[in-house]
Design goal:
Keywords: Membrane, Transmembrane, Transmembrane helix. This is ABC transmembrane type-1 domain-containing protein. This protein has helices spanning about 20-30, 35-115, 120-129, and strands at about 10, 15-20. The chain is mainly α and about 130 residues long. The longest helix has about 80 residues, at about 35-115.
Length: about 130
């Protein structure tokens, strides 16, 4: 039996073919490969039994990652909106502060030149320089 080149293909559940030589087949007949085969079968059975648990773990991990990403995106969007609103309010108040400041500046010099005898056109020419 050892001298022959008999080959035996045993297909496992994962569709991977394992090649057994004549020597391996002889050892299997004598029970020497019984423990490794039992251990291999035990591993395959445990993997099949743990497959639903693995699916649950993968689903939980995916859900947690999606929730964390959504929370991060929401926080970033809220922070950006708050910053934009603050900048718009600052721009609004700065614009009106500058407008009223210029308004009072303009009328101060208008009345200054009016009461000092200068014309309004002189003020405009001096202001443009």
């Amino acid at each position: 039996m050892r001298s022959t080149s008999m080959m035996c293909l045993i297909a496992s559940s994962s569709t991977v073919a394992t090649t057994f030589t004549a020597n391996d087949f002889h050892m299997l007949q004598q029970g020497q490969l019984l423990l490794p085969l039992l251990l291999l079968m035990f591993v395959f059975v445990m993997l099949l039994l743990l497959l639903p648990l693995l699916v649950v773990v993968v689903v939980v991990v995916v859900v947690v990652v999606v929730v964390v990403v959504v929370i991060v995106v929401v926080v970033v969007v809220v922070v950006v909106v708050i910053i934009v609103v603050i900048l718009l309010l600052l721009d609004y108040y700065y614009y009106y502060y500058y407008y009223y400041y210029y308004y009072y500046y303009y009328y101060y010099y208008y009345y200054y030149y009016y009461y000092s005898g200068n014309t309004f056109g002189v003020f405009l020419l001096r202001d443009l320089k």
